[in-house]
Amino acid sequence: MFIRNERSIKEFIRYYPVVSTIIIIHILTWLLDIIPIGLFNQLYHLGVGSHWGLQNGEYWRFITPIFLHGGLTHMLFNSFSLVLFGPALEEMLGKAKFLFAYIGAGVLANIATFIIHPSILYSHVGASGAIFGLFGVYVFMVAFRKNLIDSQSSQIVMVIFIIGIIMTFLRPNINIYAHILGFVVGFLIAPLVLNGARPYYPPQYRKSYDDDGEIRFDPNRWKKKRFSRKTKQNFLWTIIIILVVIGVLYNVF
């Protein structure tokens, strides 16, 4: 579920246009912050989740911080998380529901942050609240919709979610409210967005057929894969280790 099987970036973009668009926006808005031209820098700061600006009626700041990041490592870490966990949900929920879950969790987490932490000097950026919203949907599946997620993917979701929660409280200068409340929002809206969802199967492994509503399998699916099941399990745990290492480095630097 979380192993990327796409053969190229072009193929990834074709299969998962919403995730791809969000990542492109991440990169472009990060460039706004580093380009040494006043106009670009001003545009970046117009999007920061500044509580001073929100108290003065700049309500777009509930949305724009979701797409902004505080540096290259921050942007890469969140974008990598989205590449890993976004595609399956985009395919399962559909473009509109996925975007609703992602933006909705991020915006409501930012609104909650503003209410709980109303300091006029507080400001924040980052997609973490929205990404934790996706975790909320996954954890709901693990708990109540086991037919939508296999046991191996369930274990990976829970391990990485626990790591993310631990890092939330260990790392300084992090928006704890957005992480926790983003997850809560994702979990609460999961029954709505998962209505009508079906288990995820990588698009490139699907056999073309007239859709009659039944879930079908490509009989050659496993023949197309080069690696053994054991190798893939090791690869998944390698991903977890890499995430932990990146998270630790991000916490240190």
Structural class: mainly alpha
Q: Work out the oligomeric state of the chains in this entry.
A: single chain
Profile the largest sheet.
none
Helical fraction equals 55-70%
- What count of structural domains? 1
The whole-angstrom Rg is: 19 Å
CATH T-level topology: Rhomboid-like fold
Overall pLDDT metric: 80
Tell me the name of the CATH class: Mainly Alpha
Low-pLDDT stretches are 207-211, 215-225, 248-253
The CATH architecture can be named as Up-down Bundle
Q: What portion of residues belong to β-strands? A: under 5%
What is the CATH superfamily label? Rhomboid-like
Question: Could you give the topology of this structure?
Answer:
Blueprint lengths: L8 H7 L1 H18 L3 H10 L3 H5 L16 H22 L1 H22 L11 H17 L6 H20 L5 H18 L35 H24 L1
Helix pairs in contact: 1-2, 2-3, 2-5, 5-6, 5-7, 6-7, 6-9, 7-8, 7-9, 8-10
Features:
253 residues; mainly alpha; 10 helices; disordered C terminus; transmembrane; protease
Task: Write a concise synopsis of the structure shown.
It holds the Pfam family Rhomboid. This protein is mainly alpha-helical.
Describe this entry's structure for a reader.
The protein has 253 residues and is mainly alpha-helical. It has one domain: Rhomboid-like fold (Up-down Bundle). It is 64% helix and 0% strand. The protein contains ten helices and no strands.
